Amino acid sequence: MTYLPTFIRRDWLDVGDGHQLHLAQYGDPDGVPILYLHGGPGAGCMGGELALFGDNCRVLMLDQRGSGRSKPLGEINSNNLLALLKDLEKVRLWLDIPAWCLVGGSFGATLGMLYSGLYPEKVLSQVYWGLFIPSEDGTNWLYSHKGAAKLFADEYLAFTALAPFCSSVEQLFTTFRLGFKHKDADTRHHYICAWLAWESVLAMPASQRSNRDAAVSRSLAEIELHYASHQYFGAYSLMREISARIQAPTLILQGEMDWVCPTQLVENFLIEFGCDSINYSVIKSGYHGLADDKMFQEVVYALRKMADNIKEI
């Protein structure tokens, strides 16, 4: 029987700028404090992710700005990289936790890597999967006709069918932004579905799309586009600058068949900007996220091992 951490409490934390963040705590109040960083950006935390954690953890499930149960849903004003990073430190101080562990996937892994470089003494240990490198190459891989589009040509044609005359990623983003705000509800729905369907194809080919309600789907698509069209607010430049400052033991698990965040981009980054604290492992036949059972099991093993090691200190 799968262990699921028990619910402790939930709060909405006012972090300013009109944003209130939803924070739910689970597990052992005296256990190893672990902050879960969801991806997207904008995806929010999911209940199934609690199965990752063992019985010696205090699990902190934080919905980032505009995401999940945070308020207001889908808000992109004052929603940027620096704000998200400052929010994490506000949460740590609010909880009065001297130092914690960080875990997360995709953009959540990006966010965690940045936080651990900015606040190295506040991170005990960390595990990430499907690390997203927010560079121009990373964006082009995702959205231009020169990257993942070559592997999934038919699906890319379906993705761009609503933006057939775009010669650049910037034009593609502009077209989708206008589509998301179209006065006709059905048209908005088509654009949102096209955006999320392409993402789903890359995350795990042949998988069924998750059943999000309309408001959550629109929120996710709009926040993802907001970050992508602003080049993730300088995240790549900051990653290059501070990754060498990371002190905590860090494990990055990357799926061999991760078509959202391909291994070559991650490996090139770590070779040039990584440090001795970072360990990297490719999961053979693994995909991008936790919907892949192989990746899920590898992450479970890594998180349980991390928590046990912290408990022994």
Describe the structure.
With 313 residues, the protein is an alpha/beta fold. It folds into 2 domains: 7-133 and 234-312, 3-Layer(aba) Sandwich (Rossmann fold); 137-231, no CATH class. 41% of the residues lie in helices and 18% in strands. The chain is built from 10 helices and 8 strands. It has helices at residues 81-95, 107-118, 136-143, 153-160, 169-180, 185-203, 214-229, 235-242, 263-273, 293-312; strands at 7-16, 19-27, 32-37, 57-62, 100-105, 123-129, 250-255, 278-283. The protein has an 8-stranded mixed β-sheet with strand order 1-2-4-3-5-6-7-8, with helices on both faces. α2 (107-118) links the parallel β5 (100-105) and β6. The two termini are 29 Å apart. It is found in: Cytoplasm. This is Proline iminopeptidase. It catalyses: Release of N-terminal proline from a peptide. Residues 33-269 form the AB hydrolase-1 domain.
Question: Which range does the strand content fall in?
Answer: 15-25%
So how many helices?
10
Arrangement of strands in the largest sheet: 1-2-4-3-5-6-7-8
Mean pLDDT: 95
Q: What class would the helix/strand composition place it in?
A: alpha/beta
**Biggest sheet: strands, sense, closure?**
8 strands, mixed
State the fourth-level CATH superfamily of the largest domain: Alpha/Beta hydrolase fold, catalytic domain
How many strand segments? 8
| Global outline | globular
CATH architecture assignment of the largest domain: 3-Layer(aba) Sandwich
The portion of residues assigned to helices is 40-55%
